[in-house]
Amino acid sequence: ANLVVREAYNAYGKGEKAVVQQLQDFFHTLGIIQRDAVWWIHTVVPNLYRPQPSEFKFCLKKVLFLEAPESYCGKDNWPPEVDRSSILNLMTEAFLMEDTLMRVLVVGLARELPLSPGDALDIADKLVARAANAQTEDLPKLPNIERMELFSAIFDITAYWPPVNTQLPDDYKPPPLAISKLYWK
Question: Which of 76, 79, 104, 141 has its CA 20 to 30 A from that of 166?
Fold first, then answer.
């Protein structure tokens, strides 16, 4: 019985375990799509479109389903009003890929890209929190972290960088500092 994903999700909510594999496949595929979309935004968009920081952040948040539900339905009125919340809820429960999380942090670390370290850390925080809240025993949403570089990136993104246009002596090496608001997030 190959149910439509929404129907399978409703059946799972009622305790039916026969649909678990179908939902796992769907959430994993959605996670792969999001990973690839974040890769595209990181590698193609800045060179092709040269977006402003606000546009870049909006695009990144939109492909990760972190924007308001109205932003996904405004143009063509799809999905229908009656199905909107259930479909958008499904989309927000994608499996969080380790590569997606790492790439969001890498984008925030790249000074030449229009996403601030604080915004990148905020997006990563929201992704992890959302995946943790959606986690169930049958439908895991959090990645198994295999690359320790992810933790280094989290600490690196909290580092204070002197402004680019500040003139410092050539032999001056600023002490390693962290932005406390980001560090303790």
Answer: 104
Contact between 63 and 34 (Cβ < 8 Å):
yes
Q: So what's the pLDDT on residue 1?
A: 42
pTM of the model: 0.86
Averaged pLDDT, 136-149: 86
Give the separation between CA 49 and CA 91, rounded to whole angstroms. 26
Question: Cα(131)–Cα(140) distance, rounded to whole angstroms?
Answer: 8
pLDDT of residue 3: 56
In DSSP notation, 81-104 reads HHHHHHHHHHHHT----HHHHHHH
Alpha helices in 44-158 (DSSP H): 45-49, 53-63, 81-92, 98-109, 117-134, 149-157
Q: Helices 117-134 and 53-63, interaxial angle, to 10°?
A: 10
How far is CA 13 from each of CA 16, 66, 82, 136, 139, rounded to the nearest angstrom?
Answer: 7, 23, 19, 11, 12
Contacts 24+ apart (CB under 8 A), 74-80: none
- 3 contact partners, CB below 8 Å, separation of at least 6: 11, 19, 22
